[in-house]
Structures are given as C-alpha cells and as structure tokens.
Design goal:
By secondary structure, this protein is of the alpha/beta class. It has helices at 16-22, 85-92, 105-114, 137-150, 161-169, 186-190, 196-202, 224-235, 252-259, 276-281, 299-306, 320-323, 338-349, 352-366, 371-384; strands spanning 3-8, 27-32, 41-43, 48-50, 61-64, 96-100, 120-123, 155-158, 177-179, 210-215, 241-246, 265-268, 285-288, 310-314, 330-333.
C-alpha cells in the first residue's frame, strides 16, 4: 500500500480512532511532535491535568519525535521544535506527507522542506469568522504571509464551508481543495448503551423535563455565561426546563457563585470520553454559545448530533453553516446577542416533540460527516498522486 507520513502535535480523541481506521487502507506512520504529551498533559483551558480514557495509540504505527523546545506546548509557535523530524520522515520514505497545522517551528520547516520533493497534504480548520472588518496593515501583511505559507502545499483537506473560504482567500485553488469533513467517531456515540434514565434521575431530571446542555471548557471564548443568562430569562420559573453545564475552566468559580443556587441549573465537572455519549443523551438540546475568537469548528456539535440531539449554535462556530439547518435540526443565533439566544431557546422549550424530530434530523445529517468520508478523500487523493 502507499505510504503516508502524518505530522501532528499529540494524540487527541478525534484523530486517534481516525488514524486506526485509515491504517486499514494505507500504510501510515504518525510523527507526534510534542513528545512531552505522551502521558498526561496540563490543559490550561480546563485548568486540570487530563488523560483521555479511550485508546488513542492503537491500530497504527507512530513515533514521538523528541521536542527540544524550551517551553514545550502546542499553544505557541516555538513550543514544537524537533531537530530530527525531517530526517526521521525521510528515513521512513513516504510517498506523501500530511501535515496538521503550520504554526509551529517544525511543522513549517517540514512544509518547506518537502515542497516539490513529495506531495504535501495539509489539514487545518482556520476560518475568516473572526477576521476584523475593513483594511489594516496588520491584516494585509498576515494575508501575504499566509499566501506564502500555503504556496508550499499541494492539497488542502478542508473541513467545511468556512474553512474552504479561508483557504481560497489565501491562494489555494479549486483543484487543490479536497473535502475531508470534520468528524468524530460517530459509531461510538450512536451505540452507547448507558442507562440514561437512571443518570437523569440521579440529577433530579424527570421524563417531562426539557434539558439544554453545554459541555466544554468554561472559558470566555465559549461564553457559557451568556447561555445561562439567556436560559434563565426564558425559563427561570419553568420547572420543566433544566440546563446542564458540564466542564471546568477559568469561569467555573464565578459561574457557580452566581448561579449554583438556581434550581434548574445543574453543574457537572469535566467528563472524560467514555462518559460523553451518556451525557449528551441526557439532554434534548446541545448548545454551543461561543463568541470566539478561535471556535474554528466545534466538534462537540458532531458528538451531540451523533446522539440524535437538536443543536443551538452561535454564528461564530465554524460548523454552523454545515451542520445546522434552521428549523430542521436546530438554530443558529448571533454570538453575544442575549436577546437572539433567548428567542431561540424559547422556541426550543415550547415543543418537546419537535425537539425529538430535530434530533432525528441531526442524526441523519451527521452521517455525511464521518471518518469514512475523510478516509475516502485521502485514499482517492493518494491514488491520484
């Protein structure tokens, strides 16, 4: 089989299972460039040290390339520096290389080094959603710089519509753009058999209740405070309405101090991967109220849809244009707009039966956003190459 080298920083819950499936179709080797992340890592946004509780390193070949950065990490350009990376890749002799993200010392070096030597595939999910309106010197310089970066790639595996527009704005041509949709392990979420009713009962949730849920980092970017305020403005005296807020982060203590006494707000701590399917299935609606910057997609929306849930998503989420069909499986609201969010919440609290139909629509829609579609895209591209 053809040989594909993959360069990415560290194992994550979304790509480990994908690599395992891809290895059934191609000979791959993943070169992880943040060697310090082999074990637990400190997640600064969650504010906790975490390790995912599903296998991320099974079913495919990989190596952790020594990272010599003084301050190692994936949050800054100099945090990923691997002097032996290019040599290790060349020794493996791939037919093509797939690089996840350019904004690290080693990844940019690899892009430049392998340009015109072997086909260079690139995966990134940036969008223009947070780009300031109007012209500025900084904006123009960044545009020129990014066009220079992307001149070193042969194909861009774009994840959705907003990401496609970003690549086109920075010089990627139509024949270089290959849809490889952002996806999660749909089957793991679809087939979870947890006793959801028992879990709802423990939390004081009854059969007739309508449950909205937020699950993620309690950060300014995610804007959970906006969600709670909007929910309470609509449902404060509605004993059938509940809101679950699951996660940790910088806003955790402030939010709990403000709202923990509210009878229909339920706070839960960080939930690891094995418990996430049951968490989504306890809800009727999943809400991602992000204000940005940097909510390039929102894979939690994929997870909720795989669990047959209606979704309510801000227009700053990269997934909104692709995954949310207004009135069919949910709604999109204007970010930071409490009135618009309250109005959409009110619509969803008024009809539990319609929410069930929306959940079914979500399930149907998300089937097209799967690992299989990514694998078909990469496999087809490798044959073309």
């Amino acid at each position: 089989m053809q040989r594909l080298a993959i360069v990415t920083t560290h194992p994550i819950q979304y790509y480990g299972p994908l690599f395992s499936e891809l290895a059934k179709h191609l000979t791959i080797k993943v070169f992880y460039t943040w060697s310090q992340a082999r074990e637990k890592i400190l997640d600064e946004d969650f504010g906790i040290e975490r390790k995912w509780d599903i296998p991320l390193l099974e079913g495919y070949s990989y190596t952790f390339v020594q990272n010599t950065a003084v301050n190692p990490g994936s949050s800054h350009f100099s945090g990923i520096n691997n002097p032996t990376l290019i040599g290790e890749i060349e020794t493996w002799k791939p037919d093509a290389i797939l690089i996840f993200g350019w904004a690290f010392v080693s990844h940019l070096k690899a892009l430049r080094h392998f340009h015109k030597k072997i086909p260079v595939l690139f995966r990134g999910d940036s969008t223009l959603l947070d780009e300031p309106v109007g012209f500025s010197a900084k904006k123009i310089l960044r545009r020129y710089f990014l066009k220079w970066v992307y001149r070193h790639i042969d194909y861009a595996l774009y994840v959705g519509d907003a990401n496609k527009k970003y690549f086109m704005k920075h010089g990627i041509r139509a024949h270089q753009l290959i849809l490889a949709p952002h996806a999660i392990d749909n089957k793991r979420f679809e087939t979870d058999t947890s006793d959801v009713q028992a879990k709802r009962k423990v939390l004081g949730i009854h059969n007739d209740d309508i449950v909205l849920m937020f699950a993620g980092k309690l950060s300014q970017k995610k804007d959970p405070d906006l969600l709670i305020r909007s929910f309470l403005s609509v449902a404060k005296n509605n004993h059938l309405a509940k809101l679950i807020v699951a996660g940790n982060g910088e806003l955790e203590n402030v939010l709990k101090e403000r709202y923990e006494q509210e009878g229909n707000i339920i706070f839960l701590t960080f939930q690891n991967q094995t418990t996430m399917p049951a968490l989504y299935k306890m809800a009727d609606v999943f809400v991602l109220p992000s204000r940005g910057p940097g909510e390039t997609w929102g894979l939690a929306v994929n997870e909720a849809m795989a669990c047959s849930k209606a979704v309510l998503v801000s227009d700053k989420c990269g997934c909104a244009a692709d995954l949310v069909q207004s009135g069919l499986n949910g709604y999109v609201f204007k970010s930071r707009d409490e009135e618009d969010l309250s109005r959409k919440i009110s619509l969803m609290l008024n009809n539990k039966r319609k929410l069930q139909a929306m959940g079914c629509a979500s399930f149907d829609l998300i089937q097209r956003w799967s690992y299989n579609e990514i694998i078909l895209a990469i496999e087809g591209l490798m044959k073309k190459i």
